[in-house]
Each structure stands twice: as C-alpha cells, then as structure tokens.
Design brief:
It is a single chain. A hairpin with a 2-residue loop joins β5 and β6. About 25% of the residues are buried. α1 packs antiparallel against α2 and α2 runs antiparallel to α3. It contains three helices and eight strands. The protein has two domains: about 80 residues, no CATH class; about 110 residues, no CATH class. The longest helix has 21 residues. Strands 1, 2, 3, 4, 5, 6, 7 and 8 form an eight-stranded mixed beta sheet that branches.
C-alpha cells in the first residue's frame, strides 16, 4: 500500500502585510525629527528649520534613489516636492523661520528682562507681560515660522499690535482676522496720547497670533 504524499506549503509572509517602502521612509524621517526636537528641548543642540527641512529632503532623495529599483513611489515624490517648497521658503524668508523648535514661555517682570525680539522656527512662543511695570515705551518683534504666538499684555499700558500670518488666524482684544495672508493692525485706547506704550510686531508663517 502506497502512503499518500503530504505536501507542505512553504511559510511566506503575504506582501500585503509588509509595510510599504514609503511608510518606512516616512517613519524614519519622523523618528529623526523627533530626536532632533528632544535634543533642542533639552538644550543639547540648537535646531532650526534651516537644518531640519534640507535634512528631511536629503533623506527622501536618498530613499527615492534606493527605491527606484523596486518600482515607483509617488507618495515619496509628493513628500519630496513639499519639502522642497518648505526648504525654499526657509531660504528666501530666513527671518520668519529663525529660531529653535518647541514651546517657549517667557515671563517678564522687569524692563531689563524685556528683549527686542523673540523668535521660534516651529512651535509656540508665550510672552507674559502681565506683571511687568513699564517705565518707558518698548517695541517688541515676535516671529514664528509655523505655530503660535501668544502675548499677555499689562493691564495699565496702552498697546498697539501689527500682526500678519501667512495662513491662519489673528486675535487681538475683540478683533479677529483669519484665512490666507490675514493682517491685523490694532491700536488700543489711549495709545496715541500715552507717554508709555507697548508696540508689538508679530509675524507667523502658518498658525495663530493671540494678544490679550
């Protein structure tokens, strides 16, 4: 009597269960950006968008070169185009994208602590002036490449705000502007006649401005 043949199928991993090439590359980029963000937050390195975007673009370009042997990767091409645009923006608008990455909160209680300008490449700046006793007029420039600027002004000092955003929202007192390239100029009560005033010039590439 002949024993029946037993066929053993080789164990394979369905290709559909494997992560796509583009997903792996995107994950690598996110891990690198996350590590850079942590190093900047820990004051180990000072990171700017002038470094981050070209680095990410180089990773995508290298991935496209290696991945070209495995087929087309339209998702990576789209990501590469997007990063190229951002890199060009950083190159041509260096003032807007200057600074670090993360959240920065500054509380000023004396005039000697108040700086002429505050900047962040990516993240949020909170400037708290509620406990500042102003003895002379001051003009402050704040800029964020992508993120948010929030300023808390002293109650007893008339202030003026000139705010502009590439895309997003501006809120000053009870006035609001939003959409693409909104701009808002606000002059508070008593500003023109006061001997001591506060002037805020605020620029955000994409995000939000709030002064209260």
């Amino acid at each position: 009597m002949t024993d029946p043949e037993i066929h053993v199928e080789p164990t394979t991993t369905p290709e559909s269960h494997l992560p796509s090439y583009g997903t792996v590359v995107t994950g690598i980029i996110l891990v690198v950006l996350g590590v850079l963000w942590l190093l900047d937050a820990a004051d180990v390195l000072s990171i700017s968008l002038g470094m981050v975007f070209p680095l990410a673009l180089a990773v995508v370009g290298l991935a496209l070169m290696v991945g070209s042997f495995r087929g087309h990767h339209p998702g990576l091409v789209t990501l590469g185009v997007f990063l190229t645009i951002l890199t060009l923006m950083v190159s041509f608008l260096p003032g807007t994208f200057r600074g670090g990455i993360g959240d920065r909160e500054v509380r000023v209680t004396e005039m000697s602590q108040l700086e002429d300008s505050y900047g962040m490449a990516l993240g949020k700046i909170t400037l708290d002036l509620t406990d500042l006793e102003m003895t002379e007029s001051a003009e402050v420039q704040l800029s964020v490449g992508a993120g948010e600027v929030q300023v808390r002004v002293p109650d007893d000092v008339p202030f003026r705000v000139v705010g502009s955003v590439g895309a997003g929202e501006i809120i000053v007192a009870d006035e609001t502007a939003q959409g693409i390239t909104p701009r808002l100029e606000y002059t508070g009560p008593g500003y023109e006649d006061a001997s001591t005033t506060l002037t805020l010039n605020i620029d955000v590439g994409a995000g939000k401005i709030e002064v209260r």
